[in-house]
């Protein structure tokens, strides 16, 4: 069977290359036509865990307390904020924003009720015909209003900065009912699939809904991007009157998509230009520039088309797949080029077809196993619970498989059409360098192994210092609007990332309420609201509101917490209106029923469930706080509520994007352990299959463990946290680093029978395969360094750290691997000299 396949391959690819080329170009054109359909995604859906129970609860709270789909514009006028000219500018900005199709409302200091300008009494508020002033009320006292905004528990450090120089403009968007319906239906079917077997009809429906959801989500992302552009255009009209910054999840999403587009273009162009330069430097012949570069571009073009064809979105995590695929494809190709040129030197009289065939025949097994081990490394990422990381793993798996197939179809087909290369012996600095390393390693083999052990120990200590906590703001350069907007909102308007606490009523309260409803006198007046069951609430009474106020005040004292809003905020306002006295329970009931809608919407409804039996405290974390540690903060808050305040754990729920992001971060460490475990075991198995020897397989895995340990240890020592990008470094380092190991050990096994001497075999391998290892490692190292041009800090870390890891892997293979082979002699005894 193998012989038949070899003959078929030789006949179709080597002897009749036009057929293979036609096949490759047909597939390339087909997929290239779909490359324009490539979709980008940086939404909050792409930074949450798969199957996160907190995510389900978070979505359920949105039904009760409303959508969190909003943007914040900071408005810092050049004139006084409360001057007529500034308020006129603010009104014009608000009105222009309100005209946008998807905008439901725009909230500013112009729109909220003024209760102390002049003071309104509780009795006036409970009058059904009460009229509440705003800044737009004619003849309003602006100085009284300024004082109220700066002293109000609900407005200060929220709608107005503490210094009174900046105001917030909150742009609320309409809820997309279709999106919510598709999301709910998809999730319901997914949940049922986990717990029970879906019917054939349900399985079909799940596939349909998933496709529809993906397509509709892509349209939403595009629509939101256009909304951001329109809002920024409107903001541009007012920059001569005020300093404005934009903040919010949609803006971050839109800008991150811009980062993705930037990265794809810059990385692609940068890596392509670099590869052309190094190919010219290394080989100095046009064929060795055109063939490998065209092979790389075909791989990337087909992969982009495949992603577009399958509606597979690219995220910030997978945005560097173009540069990765270019580099990996080039690595495979360079090994083929170096082997072909060595054969040209050794067999100058052979025909071109014979040389090409021998090249492919001798390189198929090491190339196959290098591709497979790299695939295994990327496949290990799918054990993560993080959807973008999972997708990145699968994308690269498919891309590497495609690169391998193309290298064994396109490369030999094109090369077969060219004449034999006349290799002219010349001064080869690379060969001299690798040969010098061989000599030095053989002379200091023991020192090399001891040095490797010390380096491993330093790496292990560094790994113990690894952390996963990082500030979201640190993901962006200080020059980006994301950073500047978040920093201003943090320092002036009460923080950025929301964290909510929702507290349920005790179970026995519901039981008592149910019994009281059962025992109710049937002759009671159903219109008497004073004692109706719906007025019997757990939280909206003096005693329990006091408990909420105590919790509220404790939260405000935490240094990482910015603005806190709750029903206690309303209580503080009501106390101001009631001579610092807590309103009586009957007054609270009247306020809840008869207060103007604007007052209830500002002080009650967002923080109390409609039945009054669930209370919500919402706060925003100061992302720029140097002491921010979400995990510790969340644990501290939960401990305070359950242990100090005596609330039942089952009644306390912490939710919001801060919790979801924390869950993602905390999963990274576990994912890193799982990923590395899967990688090491899988690659060790691949080594045993490839080398057919356990001893040499164990030796071969050591340099790669060392490279991964060094880069993770470096992260720990320097203080670079694990995040969605850096979590992939160890697996990728091992996956790509083992390519050199496989090529070296394979060449060692081929050469050893000739020399029957470990030291001579090391010299021979360093002088042949060592050259290819040097070329590929240099290309990978510098190629990854181009990622430093990104605006996304984790991508910069990813590029630089992976470059360091690849250099470590190269030197480990050329020194430690060679030293261990000489010391442990895994291929048996040497031939004794004659």
Give your account of this protein's structure.
The protein is of the alpha+beta class and 834 residues long. Helix content is 64%, strand content 6%. The chain is built from 29 helices and eight strands. The protein has helices at residues 2-15, 17-33, 53-65, 84-98, 122-125, 142-151, 177-195, 200-236, 249-283, 287-309, 321-346, 352-379, 387-407, 410-416, 429-443, 445-464, 481-492, 507-518, 542-556, 567-577, 585-594, 597-603, 630-644, 657-691, 694-718, 729-755, 758-767, 769-785, 793-824, and strands spanning 70-77, 103-107, 167-173, 242-247, 497-504, 561-565, 614-621, 652-655. Strands 2-3-1-4 form a four-stranded antiparallel β-sheet. It is elongated, with a radius of gyration of 33 Å. Mean pLDDT is 84; it is low at 522-534.
The portion of residues forming beta strands comes to 5-15%
Largest sheet: 4 strands, antiparallel
Show unreliable segments: 522-534
Global Rg: 33 Å
Measured between the Cα atoms of the first and last residue, the distance is 43 Å
The share of residues in helices is 55-70%
Average pLDDT, all residues: 84
Shape verdict: elongated
Q: What order do the strands of the largest sheet run in, or round the barrel if closed?
A: 2-3-1-4
Q: Give the structural class.
A: alpha+beta
Q: How many DSSP H or I helices?
A: 29
Counted beta strands:
8
């Amino acid at each position: 069977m193998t012989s038949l396949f070899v003959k078929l391959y030789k006949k179709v690819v080597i002897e009749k290359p036009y057929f293979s080329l036609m096949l490759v170009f047909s597939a390339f054109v087909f997929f290239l036509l779909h490359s324009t359909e490539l979709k980008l995604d940086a939404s909050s859906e792409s930074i949450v865990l798969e199957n996160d129970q907190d995510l389900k609860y978070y979505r359920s709270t949105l039904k009760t307390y409303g959508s969190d789909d909003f943007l914040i514009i900071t408005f810092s006028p050049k004139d006084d904020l409360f001057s007529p000219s500034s308020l006129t500018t603010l009104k014009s900005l608000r009105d222009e924003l309100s005209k946008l199709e998807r905008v439901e409302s725009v909230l500013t200091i112009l729109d909220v009720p003024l209760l102390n300008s002049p003071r309104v009494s509780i009795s006036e508020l409970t009058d059904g015909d009460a009229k509440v002033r705003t800044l737009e009320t004619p003849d309003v006292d602006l100085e009284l209003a300024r004082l109220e905004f700066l002293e109000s528990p609900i407005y200060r450090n929220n709608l107005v900065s503490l210094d009174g120089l900046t105001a917030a403009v909150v742009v609320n968007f309409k809820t997309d009912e279709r999106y919510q319906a598709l999301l709910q239906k998809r999730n319901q079917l997914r949940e049922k699939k986990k717990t029970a077997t879906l019917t054939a009809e349900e399985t079909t429906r799940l596939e349909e809904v998933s496709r529809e959801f993906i397509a509709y989500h892509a349209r939403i992302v595009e629509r939101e991007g256009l909304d951001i552009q329109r809002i920024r255009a409107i903001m541009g009209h007012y920059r001569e009157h005020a300093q404005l910054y934009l903040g919010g999840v949609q803006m971050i999403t839109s800008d991150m998509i811009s980062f993705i587009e930037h990265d794809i273009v810059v990385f692609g162009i940068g890596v392509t230009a670099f590869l052309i330069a190094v190919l010219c430097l290394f080989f100095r012949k046009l064929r060795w520039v055109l063939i490998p570069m065209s092979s790389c571009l075909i791989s990337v073009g087909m992969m982009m088309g495949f992603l577009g064809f399958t509606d597979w979105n690219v995220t910030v995590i997978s945005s560097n797949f173009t540069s990765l695929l270019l580099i990996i494809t080039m690595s495979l190709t360079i090994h083929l080029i170096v082997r072909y040129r060595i054969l040209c030197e050794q067999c100058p009289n052979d025909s071109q077809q014979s040389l090409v065939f021998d090249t492919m025949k001798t390189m198929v097994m090491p190339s196959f196993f290098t591709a497979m081990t790299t695939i295994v490394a990327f496949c290990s990422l799918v054990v993560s619970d993080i959807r973008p990381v999972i997708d990145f793993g699968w994308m690269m798996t498919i891309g590497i498989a495609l690169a391998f197939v193309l290298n064994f179809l396109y490369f030999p087909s094109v090369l077969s059409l060219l004449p034999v290369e006349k290799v002219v012996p010349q001064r080869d600095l690379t060969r001299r360098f690798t040969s010098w390393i061989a000599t030095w390693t053989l002379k200091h083999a023991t020192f090399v192994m001891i040095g490797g052990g010390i380096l491993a120990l330093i790496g292990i200590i560094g790994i113990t210092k690894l952390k996963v906590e990082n500030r979201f703001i640190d993901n962006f350069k200080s020059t980006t609007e994301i950073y500047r907007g978040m920093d201003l909102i943090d320092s002036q308007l009460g923080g950025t990332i929301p964290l909510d606490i929702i507290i349920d009523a005790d179970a026995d309260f519901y039981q008592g309420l149910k019994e009281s409803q059962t025992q109710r006198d049937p002759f009671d007046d159903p219109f008497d609201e004073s004692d109706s069951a719906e007025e019997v609430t757990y939280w909206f009474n003096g005693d329990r509101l006091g408990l909420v106020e105590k919790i509220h005040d404790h939260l405000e004292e935490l240094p990482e917490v910015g603005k806190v809003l709750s029903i206690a905020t309303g209580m503080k306002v009501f106390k101001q209106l009631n001579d610092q006295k807590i309103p009586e329970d009957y007054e609270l009931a009247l306020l809840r029923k008869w207060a103007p809608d604007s007052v209830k919407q500002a002080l009650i409804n967002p923080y109390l469930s409609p039945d009054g039996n669930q209370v919500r405290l919402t706060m925003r974390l100061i992302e720029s706080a140097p002491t921010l540690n979400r995990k510790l903060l969340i644990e501290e808050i939960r401990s305070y509520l359950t242990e100090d305040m005596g609330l039942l754990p089952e009644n306390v729920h912490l939710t919001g994007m801060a919790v979801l992001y924390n869950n993602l971060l905390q999963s990274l460490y576990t994912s890193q352990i799982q990923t590395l475990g899967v990688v090491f075991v899988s690659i060790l198995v691949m080594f045993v299959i490839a080398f057919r020897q356990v001893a040499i397989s164990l030796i071969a895995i050591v340099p790669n463990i060392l490279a991964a340990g060094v880069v993770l240890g470096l992260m720990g020592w320097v203080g670079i946290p694990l995040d969605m990008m850096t979590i992939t470094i160890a697996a990728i380092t091992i996956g790509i680093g083992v390519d050199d190991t496989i090529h070296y050990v394979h060449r060692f096994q081929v050469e050893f029978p000739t020399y029957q001497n470990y030291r001579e075999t090391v010299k021979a391998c360093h002088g042949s395969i060592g050259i290819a290892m040097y070329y590929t490692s240099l290309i990978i190292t510098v190629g990854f360094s181009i990622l430093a041009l990104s605006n996304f800090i984790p991508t910069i870390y990813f590029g630089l750290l992976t470059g360091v890891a690849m250099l470590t892997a190269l030197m480990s293979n050329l020194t430690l691997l060679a030293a261990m082979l000489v010391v442990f002699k895994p291929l048996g005894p040497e031939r004794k000299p004659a």
